[in-house]
Write a structure and sequence with these properties.
- The chain is of the alpha/beta class and 291 residues long.
- Helix 7 links the parallel strand 9 and strand 10.
- It is built from 8 helices and 10 strands.
- 35% of the residues lie in helices and 18% in strands.
- The protein has one domain: 3-Layer(aba) Sandwich (Arginase, Chain A), CATH 3.40.800.10.
- It has an 8-stranded parallel beta sheet, sandwiched between helices. Strands 2-3 form a two-stranded antiparallel sheet.
- Helix 2 runs parallel beside helix 3, helix 3 packs parallel to helix 4 and helix 7 packs parallel to helix 8.
Length: 291
């Protein structure tokens, strides 16, 4: 696998040496409101050079670790199923080489392709899901492969009690009724996250971690396709990311930045910092476990 010409800041290690492999999934063909998330991964990579590689939040330096950025996949915008197959293939390759895949979307449907590959290697995975939306519709406008259905499709694969949802504040009544029976949903904020993490840690359960950035308050993060009033602050999200990283995370993604919807650039800058902090949290805990 070749390094991308432009990499996320500090992510220029050789593939063979990397602990984490970053890749972009620029896909937004099922976006239900405002399109543009297909440009999120490239914007995050490009604008990351406005950041430092050092995090004062975690007192960690990204260049102390080895991360490889393989760039964006070339995905078929005309077929969700073909795009998901390509994402699944890339994720499987990274996992097969003993590395942790970190995908940057793109709309939230891209998560399904990565989860399929992770499930092959870790059949007992749980999913921790940060989002404004439940994403539990069985179909949206008659289509089952939609960003509005992505966690329902994940549930089809892994079953009851293995999806833990936080910050949820939007969805059809039927989605909340489905969640009450089949998922572990925590509305509006991160209440209950510590207990979930402690339980998963105690049982050494592998975790796929998916972050839809619209979990954030849109006053801080307006650059997203379906903004929802309410939401969490950046410091709250950072604290939650660090907590989840204590589990056995085996795959992760960050998605739903639509950079042109915030001409100030503040949403992209925030997304860059989320990716940096997620990388560092995962690397720090991964290396502590290895000692």
């Amino acid at each position: 696998m070749k390094q991308n010409v432009e990499t996320f800041i500090g992510c220029d290690a050789e593939y063979e040496d990397a602990e984490i492999v970053l890749f972009g999934a620029p896909f937004d063909s099922t976006t239900s409101y405002r399109p543009g998330a297909r440009f999120g991964s490239s914007a995050i990579r490009h604008e990351s050079f406005g950041l430092e590689t050092y995090s004062p939040y975690q007192d960690e330096e990204l260049t102390d670790y080895a991360v490889f950025d393989s760039g964006d996949l070339e995905l078929c915008f005309g077929s969700s199923s073909v795009a998901l197959d390509d994402i699944e293939e890339r994720t499987r390759e990274i996992l097969g080489d003993g590395k942790l895949p970190l995908m940057v979307g793109g709309e939230h449907l891209v998560t399904l392709g990565a989860v399929r590959a992770v499930l092959e290697k870790y059949p007992d995975i749980h999913i921790i899901h940060f989002d404004a939306h439940a994403d539990l519709r069985d179909a949206y406008l008659g289509v089952g492969l939609s960003h509005a259905c992505v966690l329902r499709r994940c549930h089809d694969l892994i079953g009851d009690g293995r999806i833990h949802q936080f910050c949820i504040r939007s969805g059809e009544k039927a989605e909340f009724e489905f969640a009450a029976q089949h998922t572990d949903m925590h509305r509006f904020c991160f209440d209950g996250l510590e207990e979930v993490v402690d339980r998963l840690k105690e049982n050494d359960i592998p975790v796929y971690f998916t972050i839809d950035l619209d979990c954030l308050d849109p006053s801080a993060f307006p650059g997203t396709g379906t903004p929802e009033a309410g939401g969490v602050s950046f410091p709250e999200l950072l604290k939650a990311i660090c907590k989840v990283s204590e589990t056995k995370v085996v795959g992760a993604d960050v998605n739903e930045l639509a950079p042109m919807l915030d001409v100030s650039g503040a949403s992209t800058a925030l997304a860059c910092k989320v990716v940096r902090e997620l990388l560092l949290a995962l690397l720090k805990n991964k290396n502590q476990e290895g000692k």
